[in-house]
Amino acid sequence: MEIVLEKKLVITILILLSGLLNLYAENGHSLWLRNQIPKQVEVICSKQSETLSIAVQELKQNWQGNPGAEVTLSIKFNKEIKGDGYILDSSGVQANTDIGILYGVYDLLRRQRIEQPTKELISNPSYEIRLLNHWDNLDGTIERGYAGKSIFWRDENEILTITEQDKILWQEYARANASIGINGTVLNNVNSSPKMLEIKTLQKVKAIAEVLRPYGIKTYLSVNFSSPAVLSGLKTSDPLDSDVIKWWKNKVKEIYTLIPDFGGFLVKANSEGQPGPQDFGRTHADGANMMADALKPFGGIVMWRAFVYSPKEKDRAMQAYSEFMPLEGKFRENVIIQVKNGPVDFQPREPFNPLFGAMKKTAVMPELQITQEYLGHSKHLVFLSTMWEEFLNSDTYHQGKGSTVARCTDGSIYPHKYTAIAGVSNIGLDSNWCGHTFAQSNWYAFGRLAWNNNLTSEDIAAEWIKLTFSNKSSISDFNDWQEHFLLPVKKMMIESREAAVDYMMPLGLHHIFAGDHHYGPGPWYAPPNLRPDWTPPYYHRADKNGIGFDRTQSGSNAVSQYHEPLSSQFNNVNTCPEEYLLWFHHLSWDYKMNNGRILWDELCFRYENGLNKVRGFQKVWDKVKNYVDEQTFTEVQSKLRSQCRAAQMWKDGCLLYFQQFSQMPIPYDIERPVYDLDKLEKMDFTKD
Ligand code: BDP
Q1: Mean pLDDT of residues grouped by 10 in the chain (688 residues)?
Q2: Which of 373, 395, 498, 533 is catalytic?
Q3: Which residues contact 676 (CB under 8 A, 6 or more apart)?
Q4: Alpha carbon nearest to ligand 1 atom 10, residue
Q5: Nearest to residue 182, comparing CAs of 446, 363, 461, 433?
Q6: In terms of Cα–Cα distance, which of 354, 535, 450, 463 is closest to 112?
Q7: Nearest Cα residue to 608 out of 654, 562, 571, 549
Q8: Vertex 73, ends 69 and 79: CA angle to 5°?
Q9: Treating both helix axes as pointing N-terminal to C-terminal, what angle do 284-295 and 242-258 enclose, rounded to 10 degrees?
Q10: How far is CA 674 from CA 601, 620, 649, in A?
Q11: Residue 350: CB within 6 Å of ligand 1?
Q12: Bridge partners, 86 (sequence order)
């Protein structure tokens, strides 16, 4: 008894100390789940399971409500509750499932920490399957990862070496995800190695799955379509070949023997050099259905990606729609077509992919990119929630006004057996998981939106800031903190994506990066041996006459892939929203904008505006020095400096390059460029 008491005392002292130290050093590892000194709570729970024990433990270790309160966790069926949803009321949490209870507990604790009163409420998830996609390779590298190496994979030759430290990290990962409602994870890159399906790799997946399971997280794998041939020496990987069908059936059985709750496969096929059914003269539906049939007896699903394009197509933005619409309705019910938010590729701004809303008879799930491949890696502060909100709220008009992407994918408009949403993860071994403290907000926002696609970015940002930066023990005056920290930081986050669009690719410009790293500016980048659709001039089309990609009826006619009235609206330069102007139109340099400026001048102003915004963010951050721990303060400050340098390079590089075509002066009230174009053209931007 005495020993137990002593232990408790030591732990309390440690927690107290860590609270005090919080302001001075924070490596960000605890994300939005920072320790607080708990108040006492009684938890009543009549059922037992690993998940419920976690729920009880979380309550006891984090309770910030009335001291000595009694909380009941009750699992009883209520038809108002959908899936893993829950009810919060004065007595505690009610749910249909254990994991629903855990989600309710996390919500309850979150509300206590952000001081949001817990009135009686029902919370049901918008999407049934809410997934992170890791683009992690078996050797530990991460495609488009900017926060260190993989938390799952390290060394292909020692795949089965699993340390206690690994397990602790996976558990922390699971807990963070569960706290925001994420319930699935694809453990490896969409450019998948066939070795992923080797038995020893699967044994490692089993070990990971065991750690994730109590937190309600299912594991999924990206698979390589040629696996039967490459891994087992079959003569073909043709999806209609009986040996191939048998191979996948056996493989699936093997997986489920190891991982009984395995989620299913994610497949990138016939895209960017990946193998697929078309290699054998078959369709995407043939390939997806073959796998779906193998998974069906076990309840598994296939997420088949629509990210396809070939150099022969006249407009890359049109290809997903052209290839997939004819297959509409030909997929099994456990196949979901996974579609990136935009028709090209996770650009700072794109209109929504026209497949959303158009595909009715086949389930479609959005794929968002949390890792900032095209938005400044982990160097730029860009809160992506506003971009996702814009996307989810985009009206497709397919079933009349109000047929938003959100409603077309979450089952509100088209009832399908499964609804899902995926986000490409930004997580790595960096101590703060995401490389940039503010990149954690993107992981957080993805989870929150996947749970509730009606949330606003304002609310999500406020929640995240409070959870991440407000340690009650260190804030003496909440009103002061709110005025001088919460509000300015939130404003900066909300404006950050639009700022990035302005300093990188305003007015509908897209994909004008220098090289494959997708970081700095490169409208000039066009090595002669590269596919044209992998070079910026393909997208910006700048010449003496003007700039922009003509996707109108007289151009590529991509506008025709949108439902009316969007199709006509985008087609007509007078009604096309300015943010998509150069996405859909090739316009002369002196085209008159709504505000009376000519296009060239407007472009100059936009770039300048983006840069000035980042300078403003630096000032905002400098002013909050006394409200954050020193480590976070200096790290973010230094990252804002590189973001500012990058914004300057973007502005100078793009304006000086496009000026060669416009032959017009940069307006006098705009700051002169500070970089030379020829230097920028030779620069390796990733080094800064
Ligand atoms: C692009 C990335 C590439 C990915 C590809 C994909 O540059 O690394 O493999 O998307 O989503 O954005 O398959």
Answers
A1: 48 45 68 93 96 98 96 95 96 97 98 87 98 98 98 93 97 98 98 97 98 98 98 98 98 98 98 96 98 98 94 91 97 98 98 98 98 98 98 98 98 97 98 98 98 98 95 74 96 98 98 94 95 95 98 98 98 98 98 97 98 98 96 97 98 98 97 97 88
A2: 373
A3: 656
A4: 345
A5: 446
A6: 463
A7: 654
A8: 135
A9: 40
A10: 18, 24, 8
A11: no
A12: 95, 123
Place of tokens 């997939």: 324
Enumerate residues 6+ apart whose C-beta is below 8 A from 158: none
**Which pLDDT value is given to residue 638?**
98
Helices 385-392 and 457-469 pack at an angle, to 10 degrees, of: 150
Instruction: Provide the β-strand partners of residue 339.
Output: 366
CA–CA distance, 550 with 576 (Å, rounded to integer): 12
Alpha carbon distance 146, 435 (integer Å): 6
Residue 170 CA, ligand 1 centroid: distance in Å: 25
Q: How far is Cα 505 from Cα 610, in angstroms, rounded to an integer?
A: 10
User: What's the pLDDT score for residue 174?
Assistant: 98
Secondary structure (3-state) at 423: strand
Q: What whole-number distance in Å separates Cα of residue 597 and Cα of residue 669?
A: 13
**Cβ partners under 8 Å of residue 62, min gap 6:** 35, 36, 38, 109
The whole-angstrom separation of Cα 68 and Cα 479 is 28
State how far the Cα of 509 lies from the Cα of 518, in Å rounded to an integer: 14
* 272 is annotated as an active-site residue: yes
Separation of alpha carbons 688 and 675, rounded Å: 15
Q: Which is the catalytic residue, given 155, 272, 480, 590?
A: 272
- Distances in Å between the Cα of 360 and the Cα atoms of 289, 374, 504 are 17, 30, 35
DSSP secondary structure letter of residue 302: E
The predicted pLDDT at position 80 comes to 96
Is residue 30 within 8 Å of residue 482, measured between CB atoms?
A: no
- CA 203 to the chain's CA centroid: 28
CA distance 151 to 169: 7
Task: Name all domains of the chain by residue range, CATH numbers in brackets.
Answer: 2-123 (3.30.379), 130-455 (3.20.20.80), 504-549+586-687 (3.90.1330.10)
For the chain, the farthest-separated pair of C-alpha atoms sits apart, in whole angstroms, at 84
Does residue 70 sit in helix, strand or coil? strand
Question: Tokens representing 663?
Answer: 């032959």
Known catalytic residue at 345: yes
> Which atom, in ligand 1's list, is nearest to the CA of 367?
11
